[in-house]
Each structure stands twice: as C-alpha cells, then as structure tokens.
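From the pipeline queue, job 12 of 40. The input is one protein chain; the requested action is below.

Action: predict structure.
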Amino acid sequence: MQISLFDSFTRQVSAAAITGYQKHISPHKGFACAHRILYGGESCSQYIKRVVAKEGLKAAFVYSRERFQACKQANQILRSQIENSEKSTQEEADTQQRQQASRKVTQKSSFISSNNTDCFDCADLGCNCAEMVSMTLDCGAADCSFLDCSGADCSFLDCGSCGS
C-alpha cells in the first residue's frame, strides 16, 4: 500500500513527538504506564508510536481511545491491589500488636500457685472476671470477687488457662 507524502510526514513528526515525550517528559512525571505494569508489554506511548508508524495518525487516534481506557482500568486495578495490600498489612500489624499485648498481660499477671500451677492474678487483668476465675482452676489465692469488669473488652487477649 502506497502512502502519501503528507501521511508519511505526519507519521514521522508524530513518532518524533512521542519519542521526545518518552525521553524528556515521561521519566519526570512520577509514574509509569499502568497498562504496562499490570499486563507487561509496551507502554501506551510506545503502543501509539507503533500504531502511528504502521497505520498512520488516523488509526492511532482510534486505537488510542481504547488503549487509554484499558490503561485507566489497569490503574484502577493496581490501586485496588495496593489498597487491599495496605489493609492486609495493617490487619497483620494489628494482630501482632494484640498478640504482644496479650503476652505482656500474661507475663505480668501470671503467678505460681501453691500446687506449682501457673495461674493468672485476676487483679492485674482488665478481663471478664468470671472467665478469669474459671481459668484459674485450683489457684487458691486468686480472688476476683471484688473486681467489677463489666463492659471490659478482652477479645484481643489470648489468656490461655492454668495447666497442672
């Protein structure tokens, strides 16, 4: 297929303009092509440059709409993945924090009973006293009757139980 002198000129000028963008603007804009990052292959500018060279400026305008829409969707997918990753990381940090708090409370509140059983001193815990008393088994010295722990939220604690 023979292309006109004008068409050849517009292809060359367009390709040169895209090359200028790729070398001088794109590296400084602070982000990369989302389509290329998500799917691999060529960036949007490289895709349009290739279409211009092969099919001309008119085809590049038509295809660029589809490509930029796909790039926008790729950007939304990447952002969603990042947000999910951040939520997951935050949930892991929260879980680790709860576990550390539980270990601190367990270490602080533990004592050895008269029969060498490791038990919890309910006076040091902000948990449900009835639950703690049931966990102390035969610990003799543990008396939680004076504590009012109603409304205390101890869902983050893994208090364990006294073992013999």
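Job complete. Residues 89 and 106 are 26 Å apart (CA to CA).
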